[in-house]
Amino acid sequence: MNPTALAEALDTAAREARPLPGGGSGLTGTAEAYAVQEALVARRLARGERPTGVKLGFTSLAKMRQMGVADLIHGRLTDRMEIPDGGRYDVSGLIHPRIEPEVAFLLGAELAPGGDPAAAVAAVAPALEVIDSRYDGFRFSLPEVIADNTSAAGYALGPWTAPAALGGLRALANLGVLLELDGRTAETGSTAAILGDPLRALAAAARLAGPLPAGTVLLAGAATAAVPLPPGTHVRAVVARLGAVRLTTGEAA
Ligand code: OOG
Ligand code: MG
């Protein structure tokens, strides 16, 4: 399948909540896969969506093991994917949503490939990411998940904290992470699971997808495995010292 046709098929799969069979795309290389992702995101931008940032995937062993892949990937975020902290999020138009706890960075200055990530960070926040693979059963090859904009669907950001309030970004290297569904612990972990230090994710994002302009939001990748996200669920993620972020999914129809 050519890149434009695959981008259209993935876009339609997302809009109609009808998954494509994984393993059948014929995609072989990552360069080709990122060309499909670019065409897919271009379709969203053509509908009036605004780019807001970048996300990384498979930055933790927990995620690599869960999904059976072993390479860092990156995708694009848009304003359509934003979920207000504490807000309601309708999952009825999704295929098989999952949720995962993350750390987000806000860039106060441009970050070029090879630039100093710490110098560019204006603030950090706890985050929730909703992922929804457009492939049947969440089963895909690495090029396929890249083409599918790394399963991106939605994200919520908690309160921003300036690095100075943490005594510097070194504090981020080992903070406890908790994911709760309806008040029950679903996953626990540490920010150390994210490439040993989430700041490394920022450097990797700049290298892979940079230069990243000031104002970019970066999701550094889940610190734990993702869990299914049913309707009618209260979700809370807590990152120690950064605080909490919440969302509630709409009731089942
Ligand atoms: C791909 C998205 C991976 C993460 O944080 O590792 C990701 C997937 O798991 O379907 O967002
Ligand atoms: Mg993620």
TrEMBL record:
Gene3D superfamilies linked: Fumarylacetoacetase-like, C-terminal domain (3.90.850.10)
Region annotation (Disordered) ranges: 1-28
One term under GO cellular component: cytoplasm
Fumarylacetoacetase-like C-terminal domain mapped to chain residues: 97-246
Annotated protein name in UniProt: 4-oxalocrotonate decarboxylase
Key words, A-Z: Lyase
GO MF annotations in UniProt: 2-oxopent-4-enoate hydratase activity
Lineage summary: Bacteria, Bacillati, Actinomycetota, Actinomycetes, Kitasatosporales
Top-rank taxon: Bacteria
